[in-house]
Design goal:
With 76 residues, the chain is mostly beta strands. The protein is built from one helix and seven strands. The strands form two sheets. The protein has a five-stranded mixed β-sheet with strand order 2-1-7-4-5, with no helix packed on it. A two-stranded antiparallel ribbon has the order 3-6. Strand 4 and strand 5 form a beta hairpin. The protein is globular, with a radius of gyration of 12 Å. The protein starts with a strand and ends in a 6-residue tail after the last strand.
């Protein structure tokens, strides 16, 4: 599965990559995958799961899924 890390979330990747590739053998909670990858879930404000807005705490993902995660955006 693929996870797009929008905003500053890519900074938590060693190579600062915008895409995180994860291989899953069985469906798993998204929050567990992010915790294992070292991405702080408290900094995620928007989750899009296969093109549909989703809840971070309740999303279960499978191999072949695509997610897009975004941090809050501020401006002035």
């Amino acid at each position: 599965m693929r996870i797009f890390l929008g905003g500053h979330l890519s900074y938590y990747q060693t190579d600062k990559s915008r895409w995180l590739e994860v291989t899953l053998k069985e469906p798993a909670p998204l929050i567990d995958i992010l915790n294992n990858a070292g991405i702080p879930t408290g900094e995620i404000s928007l989750v899009v799961h296969n093109g549909v807005l989703a809840d971070l705490q309740e999303t279960i993902v499978s191999q072949g899924d695509e997610l897009k995660l975004f941090s809050p955006i501020g401006g002035g």
